[in-house]
UniProtKB/TrEMBL annotation, chain A:
Highest taxon of the lineage: Eukaryota
Primary subcellular site in the record, as a coarse category: Golgi
Descriptive protein name: Trafficking protein particle complex subunit 6B
Higher taxonomy: Eukaryota, Metazoa, Ecdysozoa, Arthropoda, Hexapoda
Family, as annotated: Belongs to the TRAPP small subunits family. BET3 subfamily.
Subcellular locations according to the entry: Golgi apparatus, cis-Golgi network
Automatic annotation (TrEMBL), chain B:
Record-given protein name: Trafficking protein particle complex subunit 2-like protein
Gene: LOC108566360
A family per Pfam: Sedlin_N
Keywords: ER-Golgi transport, Transport
Compartmental location: Cytoplasm, Perinuclear region
Record family assignment: Belongs to the TRAPP small subunits family. Sedlin subfamily.
Amino acid sequence: MADETVFDFLHSELVNYVIEQSELKNKDAKDEDLSNLEYLGFSTGYRMIERLTKEMPRFKDELDTMKFICTDFWTAIYRKQIDNLRTNHQGVYVLQDNGFRFLNNISNGKQYLELAPRYVTFTCGVVRGGLANLGINSLVTAEVQSMPSCKFHIQVQRS
Amino acid sequence: MAICVAIIGKDNSPKYFACSNPDDEINLQYKVLSSLDVIEEKLNTANKVTDFRELFLGTLYSLESHKIYGYVTNTKIKFIIVVDSTNTALRDNEIRSMFRKIHSIYADNICNPFHIPGEPITSKSFHDKATSIMFGTV
């Protein structure tokens, strides 16, 4: 239990740090710059996946990889699995988490909805980094409609 | 004990190479790199025909003097071990456990924040651990 909380604190400090830095650099920008946070997530995911897939058999295909992301990968970071995985079988996957860990502690109303992007960007990066190391280039975006649930859209880039 | 341990990246570029006899290095590099074709072949056929999904690929090919074993991680990193053919003490199981050890030190090395993904491995502690695995002292 205790180490869970440490991760939550570290994450929120990380968010604060990145936002502070981007404000210092770019005072009059209207939108906050979260690309650094996404990049931090990317390198975390990229490195982590090497360790997590060590004991796994080889993945059959893309869907198999996504299932791994939804179950083992998610459990390793958030101690729960993705609640719903949808795909159109053409490279778009939607991962739905009904109680996303970084949003769980924020009140449910509409008041803080505009701050939600800060708390999901890191995860987008982690997913993108993990997939990138497994050989799938993708674009990951998040969508928060009501607070603690969150949808991650993964678009696989085929070239 | 093995003669040579090599790590090849996603794009088939060499990331790490260690061998017991420095005079033989070029020769061994040649053998390791030419075995990449066999790996490619094994990966392509294995996926389609059977449910063969183990990371360890077994013997890639055996020559008069050497035997070459391969292992591919989920992230498409190839590990290759070259063993002397006269050495009969090393069976598949020992080789498999050597590969596991290499995989775990590799994963540790990737998590090192000073290592840039995709670059050759230059870490000294990694080299020390890899050579001790190669000589079978762990």
